[in-house]
From TrEMBL:
<keyword id="KW-0677">Repeat</keyword>
<comment type="pathway">
    <text>Energy metabolism; oxidative phosphorylation.</text>
</comment>
<keyword id="KW-0560">Oxidoreductase</keyword>
<keyword id="KW-1133">Transmembrane helix</keyword>
<feature type="binding site" description="axial binding residue">
    <location>
        <position position="129"/>
    </location>
    <ligand>
        <name>heme c 1</name>
    </ligand>
</feature>
<keyword id="KW-0406">Ion transport</keyword>
<dbReference type="GO" id="GO:0005506">
    <property type="term" value="F:iron ion binding"/>
</dbReference>
<keyword id="KW-0349">Heme</keyword>
<feature type="transmembrane region" description="Helical">
    <location>
        <begin position="36"/>
        <end position="58"/>
    </location>
</feature>
<feature type="compositionally biased region" description="Basic and acidic residues">
    <location>
        <begin position="1"/>
        <end position="12"/>
    </location>
</feature>
<dbReference type="InterPro" id="IPR032858">
    <property type="entry name" value="CcoP_N"/>
</dbReference>
<dbReference type="GO" id="GO:0016491">
    <property type="term" value="F:oxidoreductase activity"/>
</dbReference>
<dbReference type="InterPro" id="IPR050597">
    <property type="entry name" value="Cytochrome_c_Oxidase_Subunit"/>
</dbReference>
<dbReference type="Pfam" id="PF14715">
    <property type="entry name" value="FixP_N"/>
</dbReference>
<keyword id="KW-0408">Iron</keyword>
<dbReference type="InterPro" id="IPR038414">
    <property type="entry name" value="CcoP_N_sf"/>
</dbReference>
<dbReference type="GO" id="GO:0009055">
    <property type="term" value="F:electron transfer activity"/>
</dbReference>
Length: 294
């Protein structure tokens, strides 16, 4: 156990005095820290004080001390962004004035728009649609020619500008399919029949026990007003074509049943509220060029 001695002794082996503490016969030496170590320690204290004076360091209520030189990485980033915007403005001055059709037809403007559009797509769209625009379940594939609201330059631009189901945006894309099961409009057996009929429209196999006659009748009563009698869809309403076997959420029976039962309500930001007009134009050109543009 530890003991405390009132007097300090000098250790016979090292010649160093003890601290007066002893543990099971082991006495603690009062060995001073090396001078080189203390020198470095004091130097770091002096350095820190100098750093506080020269650079922004101490937080305040609404900001921080600016320091003698006023340097901050945020200021440097702001300068770099300003230079980038100036450089882009010089390169893409023609994009702001040209129409989408003119940009598409002009090789020089098209090249600039593609470069800017690709960068904007990677920063803002790839997280959902994928780097190559192939999409995934719930996120449209931009490489095919299957569009809910149309794939022309103007239609794509409108979709990008105002988004999908954006609250407070009167021009946003909106489509609303009833939740036939959740709202009690159709019974489970009826939903199953409609799901099988949708697969029938797409040329896909149906269940052997499916009541296709019931499915056709229910489809005509509840779905044809938007999707059309033949299920070809309506881009004005954002109603998908059900005959091409392409579905945003899947064409298997389980996915179709889920869609009919609870409906879907995907959203996309209104990029016109986040990006400048020239960038939205460039993004339109790029998306249109991915392979599905009409």
């Amino acid at each position: 156990m530890a003991q405390h001695q009132d007097h300090h002794e000098v250790d016979a082996h090292t010649g160093v005095s003890t601290t007066g503490h002893e543990w099971d016969g082991i006495r603690e030496l009062n060995t001073p820290l090396p001078r080189w170590w203390l020198g470095i320690f004091y130097a770091t204290i002096v350095w820190s004080v100098g750093y506080w004076v020269v650079y922004p360091a101490w937080p305040l209520i609404t900001g921080a001390t600016q320091g003698v030189i006023g340097y901050a990485s945020r200021i440097e980033i702001a300068k770099d962004l300003a230079l980038l915007q100036q450089h882009r403005a010089t390169q893409s001055s023609g994009l702001a004035e040209a129409s989408l059709a003119q940009i598409k037809a002009d090789p020089s403007l098209f090249r600039i728009a593609m470069a800017q559009g690709k960068a904007a797509f990677g920063d803002n769209c790839a997280a959902c649609h994928g780097v190559g625009g192939a999409g995934s379940k719930g996120y449209p594939n931009l490489n095919d020619d299957d569009w809910l609201w149309g794939g022309t330059l103007d239609q794509i631009h409108l979709t990008l500008q105002h988004g999908v189901r954006v609250a407070g945006n009167n021009d946003t894309r909106v489509s609303q399919m009833p939740a036939f099961g959740k709202d009690g409009l159709l019974k489970p057996a009826e939903i199953r029949a409609v799901a099988n009929h949708v697969r029938e429209l797409a040329g896909l196999p149906t269940e052997a026990s499916a009541d296709l006659a019931m499915g056709r009748e229910l489809f005509a009563t509840n779905c044809a007003a938007c999707h059309g009698d033949a299920g070809k869809g309506n881009k004005e309403l954002g109603a998908p074509n059900l005959t091409d076997a392409i579905s945003l959420y899947g064409m298997d029976l389980a996915s179709l049943t889920e869609t009919i039962t609870n409906s879907r309500a995907g959203v996309m930001p209104a990029w016109g509220q986040r990006l400048d007009a020239t960038t939205v134009k460039a993004l339109t050109i790029y998306v249109h060029s991915l392979g599905g543009g009409q």
